[in-house]
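Section 5: illustrative case.
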């Protein structure tokens, strides 16, 4: 039996579990403790998550094609995309940093997007296998996403600190904005997806068989 079947709902804000309908205001149940709107499942979870994922896929292209920053030292410097940045880090012998940037900026956002697509598709097309593993995958995707912000932090810090004008300057590029948007959109997509939907699909299958 799920909490939804027992008419129990947890508050999205303060986590208080209450029975619905507890108190209705304009058709919404609200939390007794903090007054937040209560619903058994996140409203329009699938449509919202799809929209955010598609937007993130689209922005993933300019994030990798356009330069994320330009380092000008002694009057010379070329704009760097994420990948060319990794290459120049390797060329300067900064292996650990190159690996970090490669994983945080190219691999993690892609894995996260593909993982979320798989999860949303699994609910949309009512796949019923391994809901437990899919829940674990969801938790990993949700936890890992914020680490992609490392790259944006790095650029922000460099731009703020390296202002030596003629000697060295760092300028952010158009790719950085797209990249930050990809990271934020995937974080929102992970938040708007309701993993309980995967279990609802499994439950409905059991009901049909019984
Ligand atoms: Zn509450």
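Designed sequence:
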């Amino acid at each position: 039996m799920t909490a939804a079947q027992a008419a129990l709902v947890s508050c999205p804000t303060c986590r208080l579990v209450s029975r619905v309908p507890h108190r209705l205001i304009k058709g919404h149940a609200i939390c007794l403790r903090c007054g937040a709107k209560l619903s058994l499942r996140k409203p329009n979870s699938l449509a919202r998550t799809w929209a955010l994922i598609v937007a993130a896929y689209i922005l993933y292209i300019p994030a990798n094609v356009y330069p994320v920053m330009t380092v000008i030292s002694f009057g010379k410097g070329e704009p760097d995309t994420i990948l060319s940045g990794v290459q120049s880090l390797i060329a300067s012998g900064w292996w650990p940093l190159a690996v970090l940037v490669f994983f945080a900026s190219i691999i993690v956002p892609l894995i996260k997007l593909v993982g979320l697509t798989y999860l949303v598709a699994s609910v949309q097309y009512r796949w019923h296998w391994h809901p437990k593993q899919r829940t674990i995958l969801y938790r990993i995707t949700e936890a890992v996403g914020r680490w992609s912000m490392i790259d944006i932090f790095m650029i922000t810090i460099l731009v703020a600190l390296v202002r030596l004008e003629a000697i060295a300057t760092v300028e952010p590029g158009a790719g950085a904005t797209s990249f930050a948007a990809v990271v934020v959109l995937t974080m929102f997509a992970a938040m708007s997806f309701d993993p309980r939907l995967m279990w609802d699909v499994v439950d409905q299958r059991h009901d049909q068989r019984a």
